[in-house]
Write a structure and sequence with these properties.
Helix content is 34%, strand content 20%. By secondary structure, it is an alpha/beta fold. It has two domains: 65 residues, no CATH class; 279 residues, Alpha-Beta Barrel (TIM Barrel). It starts with 6 loop residues before the first strand and ends with a helix. Bound molecules: iron/sulfur cluster (SF4).
Length: 355
């Protein structure tokens, strides 16, 4: 007889968890305790906790494990690197099907941030990105996204027991808005006050310009921060770096950003990877200022992380570029290349592991 496919307990929303317990003859009253064990304690062996009620312990024993209805997402660390300053730790995590993804834990000034992946590989193909260079594998499930945050939090607890994981950025492997439903379900769980409890305003979704996803975020009033990777001030400049601009061009993207800003009243963070000779000239900075005029925008300038599949080099004209944008009235800051010595640009650890 064919067994129904197993599901991850971490893939269940709270309402689904209640339904599953009810179907297993356990009162929904126990869902809060199960949620807390999985999402607050991040327990990898919940059945072993002796403070659970007997009905819940029996349900876990009967329902979770080999040949049973559920499993737990507990990715295995296959590689770990630390930056030389010790502030960035990068993990290559193997999923149940053998694919692996990257997760980064960064700690600066007592602020700890996890950077997680949302897909295996990426379909967007940005030419300067190691993940884009490896192509698309598959979408991650909500549980696989949650499990990365739980892993980062576990590491933080072991190394800095007095600190909390307060920030999350979806800037690892993959385009979050290409995996919209799974990402939103994961973020609902991660921001739940009874679980990991990272505040929605401390969660950043980074997109390379998936226009329908940006509009959907606004229509659904999602409470997260939006970061848009722009990288070009004209169609030609952008499409040379970001092939997805062939699908949603620069004009459509900027219109979507204006609409997002008008609907939500929220600031948008624009990410700009500075590449010598490609997008770092004073003319480009002036065009960018014109393009964003009227949008509540913060511009993050990012020095290029060199990758073996792209011949571009980091710009040395960043400060002049920054001054032009600031003179036009935009907050404009540099994002540090945190942990570049551990290949912390997304996809770089996995590319190195494959080489
Ligand atoms: S930069 Fe982001 S969207 Fe572009 S290929 Fe890399 S992972 Fe995908």
């Amino acid at each position: 007889m064919n067994q129904p496919p197993q599901r991850s307990l971490h893939d269940l929303s709270f309402a689904e968890m209640e339904r599953e317990l009810c179907a297993g003859g356990v009162s929904t009253h126990h869902a809060k305790a199960l949620w807390r064990v999985l999402h607050f304690h991040g327990e990898l062996n919940p059945a072993a906790r002796d403070n659970l009620s007997p009905p819940l312990q029996r349900w876990l024993a009967n329902s979770v494990g080999q040949g049973k209805g559920f499993f737990l997402d507990a990715p295995e660390v296959v590689q770990e690197s630390h930056s030389s300053d010790g502030l960035t730790r990068k993990f290559l995590l193997r999923l149940r099907d053998g694919h692996s993804v990257e997760t980064v834990l960064m700690g600066y000034d007592y602020r700890h941030t996890a950077c997680v992946s949302t897909q295996v590989g990426c379909a967007m193909g940005c030419v300067f990105c190691a993940t884009g260079q490896m192509g698309f594998g598959r979408h991650l499930r909500p549980g696989e996204i949650i499990a990365q945050v739980l892993h980062a939090r576990r590491v933080l607890l072991a190394t800095h027991p007095q600190h909390r994981l307060r920030n999350l950025v979806l800037m690892g492997m993959g385009e979050p808005l290409h995996n919209y439903d799974a990402v939103m379900q994961a973020l609902d769980a991660i921001s739940n006050v009874r679980g990991i409890n990272i505040g929605p305003s401390k969660i950043s979704i980074s997109t390379v310009g998936v226009v329908p996803g940006i509009l959907r975020l606004a229509a659904e009033a999602r409470p997260y921060r939006l970061a848009v990777s722009l990288h070009g001030s004209t169609e030609a400049e952008r499409s040379a770096l970001v092939p997805v601009s062939g699908k949603w061009n620069l004009a459509e993207l900027i219109a979507a950003c204006r609409s997002y800003g008008a609907t939500t009243g929220k600031r948008i963070f624009f990410e700009w990877t500075l590449i010598a000779g490609h997008n770092d000239s004073p003319d480009t900075a002036a065009r960018l200022a014109e393009l964003l005029r009227g949008i509540d925008a913060h511009i993050n300038l990012i020095p290029l992380n060199p990758t073996s599949g792209f011949g571009g080099t980091p710009s040395t004209a960043g400060h002049a570029f920054q001054r032009i944008l600031q003179a036009a009235g935009f907050p404009c800051t540099f994002r540090q290349r945190r942990g570049i010595d551990v290949a912390a640009g997304c996809g770089q650890l996995q590319a190195a592991a494959r080489a």
